[in-house]
Amino acid sequence: MTDKNPRPKSGDRGGGGPAETPTERLLREAMNARASLITVHDLRPADPPTRRLRRLRPLYLATVPVLALAAALAIGVLTLHGDPLARKDVPPPAATGSATPSPTASPTGTPTPTPTPTVAPSDTGAPTGEPETGAPLSDVTPTHGSTPTPTGTTPAAAGKPYTFRNVRFKVPAGWRVVEPSPGDTALCVMSPGAPPASSPNPGLPVGANPDPCQPYGVLLVVMDQPSENWPSTAMMDTASGWSPQPACPVWGNVHAPAGQEAKSTGPEKSTPTVAGRPARKSQWQGSCGSDSFTAQMWALPKDGVFVTTAGLKADYQAGLNSLLGSLDLSGHQAPPTAANQNDVAVTFDGLAAGQPLRAGSAVVTFSVTFRNTSQNTYARLQPLVFTDHYEGSPLALGAPNDGWLELQAGGEWKKKAMSPDSLMGYALADETELFKLAPGESRTLTYRLTVGAGNGLGDMPLKAQAVLPYNGSDLTVLGHQDMTVKIVK
Amino acid sequence: MSMAIGPFAVPPRGRGLSVRGLVGLLFGAQEVGEVSAATGAEQAAARRSGFRLLRGGRKAAEDRPTLTDLYHAHRLGLGRMAVLLVDHQDLAEDVVQEAFTQLYQRYGEELDDLDNALGYLRTAVVNGARSMLRRRKTAREYVPPHEADAPSAEDHAVLNDEHRRVLVALQELTPRQREVLVLRYWSDLSEAQIAETLGLSRGAVKSTASRALDALEKHLEKVR
User: Is pTM beyond 0.90 here?
Assistant: First the structure.
């Protein structure tokens, strides 16, 4: 039952192709072995969908109200707390850092003094070469409650400065940073007691990626856009919000929980100050069998910054506190709000509104220009160009329009999604297509639209958007332009 | 042209024209092996399908399976494909369920307006898996394992060390590379089918597969 039906070798397909290599054969066998672990008995009870409960429209259409809410909250916070760092001005690319506050017109028209960031936006973490300032820029309310008392066996002195997505902190002495990949929003800072990076992770299922951060380290999450993903402030109110999945982060015995083995109580909530800003903290007590652990999560909601740990040995609490105390968000650009939804001007060229295009034969090349009209630097902008649904769309609700939409890249035409889909596959970012836009900068991209014969008569919308890289939750639109072309026969 | 989603171990057993057989005929898919494990819902679907045929509906060749038929026939195969992409059974089942839900949202129970429901589902699963991976990556580099994905001791015995190394190396590839390899070497799709599923050119599929195999070999050499 666990084996596959006989397959043709690659050489059998084309009647002369190369025979299958040992690697290919091994790959087939391994995938077959893995897949065969799942039988129909292992699946959840069958539950074919019978109700239209989920959203019918692409998620991005809901972004505006989400952003509006975020804006309302931001305005409230600005009004109530007068936080001078709610918005950042970013200097021209060549400018060097300055700590001189400069008055700035915020998107709401309220002058807000903000210090100029001292670093250019960057998506990858890197050790900073700047001199240490000595005193931490923030204070942290001491942890209390059931948090294990630091024993003092771990050096708590701040160490090397490090910058991750423009958030600066000092790596506690003896701790080490797991170097992130470009685009990562989470950074793991490992405690001195963590096992070597190359050591195996006993107890983890085959194929599971090792999780060095639970319980051995601290996870710093820096989001650049609103997100419903873990960690979130909403999850800080839930009994199991310390982890996105059931887990047993037991020091020295990380393992998958068996059945209902993983239990947690809490959260115990408090409102400490982190990085000089009002923060939230939730703390849970967890257990897996006879092993117990503490989970902690701090959030700077407006900044999209979280610090979280679960199962960290009490010996390293002082190091964790030291890291928190060194957090510096002065260079971090807060996630955009509704006020930023027109930061990027988007224009079409080479295609006129209402231009007739014949279904089945029209091939039109046009360009889209994205220009940053704001004072914010966007380090990673994602272009999204697509045709939307209309009365002539070939199939029922939600089906893509017929044809091809291609982006010119590197001398080649790269196929893009013709229309949105509810799974948001069309919005998944291609890292090679992301670009940076400093204030005043622009980028022009060339597209080619081939109109398929399956499109009916009507006005087909053509939309272009500048968005932040889709994070699996919300699509943050920073500029858009819509037009329609007339599909004729 | 095979439209099989994935391998099924046991050849179809003779039970007359079951709904799975019908689906297989219409979509070119192999019948799910675990026939004896058919649930009550599946049997109900078969009965319903049979009733429709008896009451003189369209000819069998034109009678497309309903979404429920597809669900029972391909949930396992799609789930197996998804688990190779997301490496987590719980998430894989979420992805597959979402794909069927998406299909239902657009077309309802009857799929008469959809020519290639299986292709649609396959693309939806691949896209859903990508989205799921993106969410996991965004949230953090790792999602702790869930009980449902923890192989039993017997499962460990089934997977030998070499297979484990290959699977770990597979997870080291880029999502696109992994998708191409899964679709090519597990789902047994042609380059053209993979291109259609992933929205790539055939040339891109070929080059991605080549690079993926090279990367896989390098990863394997590292852990040997």
Answer: no
